[in-house]
Each structure stands twice: as structure tokens, then as C-alpha cells.
Design brief:
elongated; mainly alpha; 79 residues
Length: 79
């Protein structure tokens, strides 16, 4: 792990400290969980946008799957 310093608003610190006491976790652990959640959400959004970019123009490309397989391209094989 890397040590870092984070400045919180008083309201954020109070709320986070209370949550840490209630859940028997450290304040640092809760901050790491929040960062993981943020990074996971951002990564998921980027993957969705990338999948959408993959199908751009698919219906007009006569050489490609022409729209019939757009669900498979977007969501993969979930069979």
C-alpha cells in the first residue's frame, strides 16, 4: 500500500468516522472502499462506451453482421 494524505470536509470526516465506529472498520478502509467503488464504476462505464463504439456503423456495413448480432456484440454470449 502507498501512504497518502486526503483532506476531508468536516462533515465528511464526521460522517465517515461515525460509520467507521458503527462498522468496526478503520477510516482508511472505508476510504479505500469508496475509491474502489468509484474506480469500478468508472471502469464499467468505459467498457460500456467501448462496446458501443464497437458497433458504430454496424447496420451500414454490408460486410459485417449488419445489426442482427448487436446484442451478442454488446453483451457477449450469455447462452
Amino acid at each position: 500500500m502507498k501512504r497518502t494524505q486526503v483532506l476531508l470536509e468536516p462533515r465528511q470526516h464526521e460522517t465517515l468516522s461515525a460509520w467507521a465506529r458503527e462498522t468496526d472498520r478503520s477510516l482508511s478502509e472505508l476510504v479505500r472502499l469508496a475509491v474502489d467503488e468509484l474506480l469500478g464504476s468508472r471502469g464499467a462505464r468505459r467498457r460500456r462506451v467501448a462496446r458501443l463504439a464497437d458497433i458504430r456503423g454496424i447496420a451500414t456495413d454490408r460486410r459485417g453482421p449488419a445489426g442482427r448480432d448487436h446484442d451478442r456484440i454488446l453483451y457477449g454470449d450469455r447462452g
